[in-house]
Write a structure and sequence with these properties.
This protein is α/β, with parallel strands linked by helices. The protein has helices at residues 2-35, 65-72, 94-105, 123-132, 153-157, 182-205, 220-225, 236-246, 267-294, 300-310, 314-335, 341-345, 348-366, 375-388, 390-401, 434-456, 462-502; strands at 52-58, 82-88, 111-115, 139-142, 166-175, 216-219, 250-261. It is 57% helix and 10% strand. Helix 2 links the parallel strand 1 (52-58) and strand 2. It is globular, with a radius of gyration of 24 Å. It starts with a helix and ends with a helix. 44% of the residues are buried.
Length: 503
């Protein structure tokens, strides 16, 4: 019995240690970001008009695809110096919408082609590779279906390829529907930190960064030299990014060039996105981390940051593990072994909390919202939501470690904004997954942890259990409510179809 108790304490302490080390690494990125030199906006010279291929990978995007095509055709760039490839793997009426829009845009002189493969082999990576084989451009700009690049995007990014070893220029994501709901506001809160402190800090120190799958430009020769697009992982962007940088290619990150996009507005859409990102990162770590460790010429700092960058999804396993074990640890403390040093070590979680607080505040300040006093409430709600997503994301990581392959599940884009009722329902799920009910049980479990604080008179973990209870409770409630709303809208749509048919 005591052997099992001490073994669980070792596991608990190890997970806490990983969270602490991850937080310290994030703090070094924060320092690098604060001390960075502001990038110089490079002017575009008219003599520089290299051929560019715009790749638009789409799959069943009826609500946003026309907006995407209009934006891609509107670049302030000579029409004879860029082409647009619509890499369309759709199986619904998106195909007809794309065809009609392309026919209309061709009259403007834009070189735009409708690329159909007839299958989804390799999913997004397969589509990009298929298009690359016939791409005429020296540079390849990629935009997902929900992005709306500004007309000057090419003129602001291409000058940063003046160094022939620069393989990628990545830009920051904006959020067209940030104010749609609390769920989208919290997503924007988290993504803003990645697209300021993380990407900016890594870029400032010359550490490995990643192409984010969209809103960026590749040098075609860089893609080819690194081995091309592969579907070995669910994050083909991270995979190719590391293979390219291991080959010696440089990446540039432009924080001031913002490309607006849509955030997932429903819990099922957010889940599919988070699952793909988290599992794909773990798959990439499994595939490429040994190469990073063995790579000659990398400094210790480069290896360290690459390790934690590729292993960042493991944080969700540690969050879930320490959360589930925290209640047994509290019980052991008061019934079996007393005030062991492991319990005192758990206090380092407060240090991690302080680091995260500073990390996200820097991003908040950079976003121009520093005068808004709602930072602390949003930070706490974001932290709680992240904890609530830990079960879903930890399962994705474990699947990756076990080598279990799953198909690429797209994130539904619904073209929703502030004040929108979310009536675009074709890609919305009306099913409540089994995981949602487990998350609801976890909320009850951590509510019991809050109760134990009063039983034992020990309130050290009480705020932690409150956050966990709120996080799992909100995630499960979002899942249930969004499914019920979608079900009602589907029923209403069916009724309208029946009424129309009778009339």
């Amino acid at each position: 019995m005591m052997y099992a108790v001490y073994l669980s304490m070792v596991v608990y302490g190890g997970m806490l240690l990983f969270i602490l080390l991850y937080s310290i690494v994030q703090f070094t990125l924060l320092r690098a970001y604060i001390k960075r030199k502001q990038p110089v906006e490079r002017e575009y010279h008219d003599v520089m008009y290299p051929m560019v291929t715009i790749q638009l990978p789409v799959y069943n995007e009826r609500y946003v695809v026309e907006r995407l095509l209009d934006a891609a055709a509107s670049f302030d760039y000579p029409v004879d110096r860029f082409e647009v490839q619509v890499l369309d793997d759709s199986t619904d009426d998106t195909v007809q919408l794309v065809k009609a829009r392309i026919d209309a845009l061709k009259h403007t002189g834009v070189h735009i082609s409708h690329v159909r493969r007839g299958n989804r082999d390799g999913f997004k990576a397969g589509a990009l590779a298929y298009g690359l084989a016939s791409a005429k451009g020296e540079f390849i700009a990629i935009f997902d279906a929900d992005f709306i690049p500004d007309p000057d995007f090419l003129k602001r990014t291409l000058p940063h390829f003046s160094d022939p070893r620069t393989g990628v220029v990545q830009c920051r994501w904006g959020h067209v529907n940030r104010e749609y709901s609390m769920l989208t506001r919290l997503q924007a809160f988290g993504l803003d930190a990645h697209f300021t402190v993380e990407q900016g800090g890594r870029n400032a120190k010359g550490y490995f960064i990643n192409f984010n799958g969209t809103a960026g430009v590749w040098r075609k020769s860089c893609i080819e030299d690194a081995g091309g697009w592969r579907a070995d992982t669910l994050t083909e962007d991270l995979d190719l990014s590391y293979r390219a940088q291991l080959k010696g290619w440089k990446f540039n990150y432009l924080e001031d060039v913002v490309c607006p996009a849509e955030l997932p507005g429903t819990m099922d859409a957010l889940r599919s996105q988070q699952f793909r990102w988290t599992k794909g990162a773990a798959e990439t770590a499994r595939l490429l981390l040994p190469q990073v460790i063995r790579k000659k010429g990398l400094s210790r700092a480069h290896r360290l940051h690459a390790f934690f960058h590729l292993m960042n999804s493991f944080v969700f396993v540690c969050i879930l593990g320490t959360a589930l074990m925290s209640i047994p640890m509290l019980t052991f403390k008061h019934t079996l072994i007393g005030d062991h040093w492991v319990f005192r070590f758990a206090g380092v979680f407060l240090l991690s909390f302080v680091v995260l607080l500073a990390f996200y505040y820097a991003a908040w300040h950079r976003s121009g919202k520093a005068k808004n006093r709602s930072f602390l409430p949003q930070f706490i709600m974001f932290l709680s939501l992240s904890m609530g997503m830990s079960l879903h994301n930890a399962l994705a990581v474990i699947e990756a470690w076990l080598g279990r392959k799953t198909p690429f599940v797209r994130t539904p884009k619904l073209n929703i904004g502030k004040g929108d009722s979310g009536g675009n329902i074709l890609y919305r799920s009306a099913r409540v997954s089994w995981l949602t009910w487990v998350e609801l049980l976890f909320a009850v479990y951590f509510a019991w942890g809050c109760h134990l604080a009063w039983v034992y008179g020990d309130f050290g973990l009480f705020p932690y259990h409150v956050l966990l209870c709120a996080g799992f409770g909100s995630v499960s409630m979002y899942g249930i409510s969004h499914a019920l709303i979608a079900r009602r809208k589907w029923m209403h749509a069916d009724e309208q179809v029946q009424i129309t048919a009778r009339s």
